[in-house]
Every structure is written in C-alpha cells, then in structure tokens.
Design goal:
The protein has 13 helices and 15 strands. Helix 5 runs antiparallel to helix 12, helix 6 runs parallel beside helix 8 and helix 8 crosses helix 12. 42% of the residues are buried.
Length: 386
C-alpha cells in the first residue's frame, strides 16, 4: 500500500472538510477511496464535484467494495461504535470521530472488539492532542514543572449557539439523536484534554441546566466539580449561551501554576521554593514583608509562550498520523481505546446531575444506560438504545 484509500462515511460539514484537505494534497499518503451517505443530495453533490470517487448509500456495501483501506465516521454519535465494529470486522482501518460514542457500554464493546484486531489501526479523532499548545502543557505536567497537581479549573464557554442552530434538525440537541448537549457535541475535546493532561477524577459532582437558555431538552449549562482522589480537585464549566465567551484553563501545582488563555497563550509561573517549603520556612512576618514589597520582589519566575493556530492543521495532523500508523507503524497520537475516557467523564457529569449527588468512577454502565433510556423515552418516536 503506497497511499491509504479513505472512505468517508457521512458527507456533512466534517466529511466535506476532510475531503477538501485530502483532495487538495494537504494530507500525506492519503487519498479518497469512496463516499457514503444516505442523503440523495449528497450523492448528487459528490457526483458533480468528485465524479471519479465511488459513492455508496450503504456503508456495509462500501466496506465490502474493495475501494477503501480505512474509514472515518463523520456520523451521529450513537453510530460510531456500530460502524467502527463493522469496519474492524472486515479488517478496515478505523478512525472514529469524537466522541467515540454516547455511553461507555457501547464504547467498551468497540474497544473490546478492536483489541481482537491488533493488526488493524484503530484511532479516535482527538485533533486537539496535536495542538502544540496542549502538547506543551502536557509536557510541562509530565515533567513535573509545577509539581503535584492540587487544583484544575477550566472555563470554556466559547460555544455560543443561537436557537436557529438547534432548529436546523430535529435530531440536534436531543437525548435520542445526539445523546446530550454541550458535553457530547461541543466540549468533548476539552474533556479529553483535561483527563489526558491531568488524569481522570475519581468522583464527580455536577449541576447542569437543561434547556436553560435554549428550547432544547438537553444541557446548555454545565458546572462540574472533580475529585481526583488524592486531595486535588477541579472545576469544569461550559455552556452554549455565552455570546462573549471565555476560554481559561488553570492548573495549580505545589511548585507553580500554568495558565492557558484562549488556547493561544501559556503563562508558566514557577515558584523558587515549593509551596510546602515556603510554608515550613517563612514566618508570618516574612509574608508581611513580601506583601508590603519589603522582601524579595518575586517568589517565582514567569514564562509566557504564544502560539498561532492554523485552522484545519490539527485535523490534517490526525489524518496524517492515522495514515502513518497504517503504513509504517508510527505511534498514534490518539489511540481509539482512549475514546472511552472522555465518554466516561461526560457520563459521570450527566449522571451526577440526574441523581443530584456525587458519583464515583468507573460508573455502573448498565445503570447509566437505563437512566439515559429514561431520557430517550421521554422524546416521542425515538428508538431506545441497547
């Protein structure tokens, strides 16, 4: 295989973006093998713009056509595990979009099946993991630059969506169509980054508002408190009704602090003495001098790093990394098995809100699914998941 022939399942906005990246030659070692969509209008569009690329309205037929070596699932969230398993069964390399699924039981089934196919590439589209800014933050944490984590805070409210956005399709922002609101649609990348960089919490307590500022049955406002089990805590806040928006991520350690502003700038404050050392060696009089400016002018050094983000480059990075793993075994940035972590955290945030109490991770998968199905059953005409 010289180039990977990618099958795009679902020719919506993302499928269209990936098609342009590949056909414009921006993705190394990858070409379009086939398209698949159930919408006749998409078939007509592809026939006009990509006449040499086969089009299927049944993804199984595409998988068995011999036209593709790999696929990406740009389809509704519930379908990612199902399509992923069918592709892997046929030894088709699989890249599932985020989130990997709606609930951990279905994602676990996907992961378990993928484990039986070790020679078939399985990845998840966490393109933010290729963002140099967040790679730097992870490197700083992994290298102990600010010591042991004591607290995390991420407010990411830059997802403003008007009512018209939700009115574009009956499946949008529904339990049966998407499996939730901002947690499963807009914020999965941040949820993944939070656990990728700082680790998974042991307990979650949340306060969610459903249809708070929009006419939708799912959450458009989220405040979650995270307990990492070692004394460290965190807060995660997101919503889709803040037209002014904030993106600020802080990680406090016992040797300093990392502050990320607007996913563009990192400020690293490194203490000259760790906080425990300061507590043990400085008396109240010393603190008074510091606050009055009579002592050392600074107790920390400060480094600021600015980043520029090129739109689409992170998606291109994931596609190239996926192809490289298939062709020469290059290590995956986002192995498919990692997809379950963000789903588990989102599930915990939902469940805590539904029950009105703190919940522990890992969750009881069957119990969560039963509670999710109660939400789905309230929506007329929507099939219950199993």
């Amino acid at each position: 295989m010289e180039k990977v022939r990618l099958g795009i399942i679902g020719f919506g906005q993302q499928g269209g973006n990936y098609t342009r990246f590949i056909t414009e030659g921006k993705v190394k070692n990858m070409v379009i093998g086939a398209f698949c969509d159930i919408d006749p209008a998409k078939k007509e569009y592809c026939a006009e713009n990509y006449p040499d690329v086969p089009f299927f309205d049944n993804y199984i037929e595409m998988l068995e056509s011999g036209k593709v070596d790999a696929i990406v699932t740009t389809v509704p969230h519930y379908l990612h595990p199902e399509i992923g398993i069918e592709a892997l069964k046929r030894n088709i390399h699989t890249l599932v979009e985020k989130p990997a699924g709606v609930y951990t039981k279905q994602v676990k089934e996907l992961n378990d099946f993928a484990a039986t196919k070790p020679d078939v590439t399985f990845a998840v589209f966490f393109n933010q993991r290729t963002n140099p800014l967040y790679q730097k933050v992870k490197e700083l944490i992994d290298n102990g630059e600010i010591g042991s984590i004591r607290r995390t805070n991420w407010m990411i409210t830059t997802w403003w969506r008007p009512q018209g956005y939700y009115d574009m399709g009956a499946w949008r922002a529904t339990w049966g169509g998407e499996g939730g609101g901002v947690l499963v649609n807009q914020a999965p990348h941040q949820i993944d980054l939070l656990q990728w960089i700082c680790g998974m919490p042991k307990k979650v307590y949340s306060n969610l508002k459903y249809g708070y500022q929009r006419n939708i049955p799912v959450e458009d406002e989220v405040t979650a408190i995270l307990d990492y089990g070692n004394g460290a805590t965190g807060v995660f806040i997101t919503c889709t009704h803040d037209v002014l928006g904030t993106d600020r991520f802080e990680i406090l350690g016992d040797k300093g602090k990392i502050i990320v502003d607007n996913s563009r700038k990192i400020t690293i404050k490194r203490l000259f003495l760790s906080e425990p050392e300061m507590s043990a060696t400085l008396g109240w009089g010393d603190i008074g001098k510091l606050t009055r400016g009579e002592g050392p002018s600074k107790i920390y050094s400060e480094e600021v790093i600015e980043f520029q983000s090129v739109w689409g480059q992170q998606h291109i990075n994931i596609l190239e990394n996926f192809a490289a793993n298939i062709l020469d075994g290059t290590e995956l940035v986002a192995p498919g098995s990692d997809g379950i972590h963000g789903v588990a955290l989102a599930n915990a945030i939902h469940l805590s809100s539904w029950l009105g109490k703190e919940v522990e991770l890992p969750l009881d998968e069957d119990f969560f699914l039963a509670e999710l199905n109660k939400k789905i059953e309230e929506e007329k005409g929507v099939t219950v998941q199993n």
